[in-house]
Amino acid sequence: MNHREEAKRANNDEDNGGIDIVVEKSHDLISGGSVPKLLKKSAGGEKCCIFRIHQRLRNNNYKDAYEPRVLSIGPYHHGKEHLQMIQEHKHRFLGIFMDEAQKKGVDMKDLIEAVSELEEDIRESYSESLYNGDVSGRKKLIDMMVLDCCFILILFLVVARKVSYPERVKDPIFGMKWILTAKGVTYYFWRIRFLSFFFKLFMTNRRLGRQEG
């Protein structure tokens, strides 16, 4: 083999080596990617029904229709400053709910356990990942769902006079009629999943049911 052939072969080996490096590095495109957070793989599943409105839709003439004006339910708008007025009252309404629930033998532990059993379904209902799956992340999600569901249920139960609430006349939430008549509030509430489960839990004696079973 002459010098020209040796040089050509060396160049070929170098070229092949370069391709091998490129191929090897290309695997990083697959293995090095982070787990999707903004749109989970399961977002196309049957259980997924809660999506964040795309910014393109928000930029039209009806952008206000996609932004809550009075209160937030769930994680997507949680913590926004203009919704904090009602957020502060949720804990008070939770106390009212628990006063009634305890008459039926349902305590906070029952509610926490009930939501814990539904945690996977709750996560699958949202198109985005909700907090971390560690202890603190799970607690944050479960606490939020308990608080929001109890707030909505006791609100409707009082309005429908299914629960006696003597302080209703003086309560600022019921005194501000615009809160309950805000466009779409009632419709939005009843489309929320898991409310029916909480309602059944509230209307039945869960603790007695366990003892009888």
Automatic annotation (TrEMBL):
Keywords recorded for this protein, A-Z: Membrane, Transmembrane, Transmembrane helix
Domain of life: Eukaryota
InterPro entries: DUF247_pln (IPR004158)
Position of the signal peptide: none
Sequence intervals crossing the membrane: 145-165, 185-203
PANTHER family: BNAA09G04570D PROTEIN (PTHR31170:SF25), BNAC04G53230D PROTEIN (PTHR31170)
Protein name: Transmembrane protein
Organism: Arabidopsis thaliana
